[in-house]
Every structure is written in C-alpha cells, then in structure tokens.
Amino acid sequence: xxVVTDLCSGCRYTECVSVCPxxxxxxxxxMTYIDPTNCIDCGGCVPVCPVGAIKAAHKLPPDKVxxxxxxxxxxxxxxxxxGKLPPLPGADERKAMILR
Length: 100
Ligand code: SF4
Known about the structure:
Elements: E1 2-4, H1 15-19, E2 25-27, E3 32-34, E4 54-56, H2 66-77, H3 91-99
Antiparallel strand pairs: 1-4, 2-3
C-alpha cells in the first residue's frame, strides 16, 4: 500500500482524497491516513500531494517506516474522508518551508 507520512501533518491539503478511486483516506484534525486494506496501489495520490507526503510503503526511507503502522492504526480509528477540504491554517507557509 501507499502511506501518508508526517509531511502531511499540519498541512492536510486533501488533494489525495479527491483522486483516490476506492476511498482509502481517513482524516483527523492534523492529517490524512491511508487504510492499507483498501489501497489498490494505483499511485494516483502521490503526484497530487502538494508537499510530497505520500510514498509507496516499500520505498519509505528508514526514518519513515514507522508511518506504515501509524497509517494502519489511525485509519482504523478515524472516519473516512468524504471529499476535499480546505487546507489547515498555515499550510501554505508550511509547504514553502518543506519545498525550499
Ligand atoms: Fe488511493 Fe491509489 Fe493512493 Fe492507494 S495509491 S491511497 S488506492 S489513490
């Protein structure tokens, strides 16, 4: 499956939610999470994330591997994201820091 990493936390642009064909994405107050049991590995969410937060699980660098388990757990604990939402306050400033 694909995995949302900590780069999403505090931005939560939710472009990913709009493109996912199988409603993988769950959401809380800080970020989105992918339900690994639903993800069909289409990769569609990767290029639309403005901060590059989504990666294939097998391509995660060692310091991000913990996000596989965090996505699994938080997807089970949070509601399905029903569509695109406005990004969190300060998301554009945060994105500028991430991408600089
Ligand atoms: Fe959804 Fe495809 Fe992304 Fe998996 S890889 S979360 S199926 S858009």
